[in-house]
Amino acid sequence: MSGRGKELGKGKRTFHRQVHRDHIQGITKPAIRRLARRGGVKRISGLIYEMTREVLKVFLENVIRDAIIYTEHAKRKTMTAFDVVYALKRQGRTLYGFGG
Question: What digits encode the pLDDT tens for the residues 22-48?
């Protein structure tokens, strides 16, 4: 039954509800450690991990909000790499290598 999503068979249609949870916890402690190591950090306090998640969430919300504005202005439903590059450039964080 290709293309039916979460529905089974041809019976009564049921709606699949997505459970919303805090996905920021998916940024694991080892992932934060790897980023810190790349930045030259030698030793990390235990309190840093939660704070890093909060800062990362705010940063991504701002970038995604700006990228959505570019996408909607172009009357598209798919966000492109150019939208993200322009959103970062608008915030003063120019990213090279992805066009634009």
Answer: 888 899 999 999 999 999 999 999 999
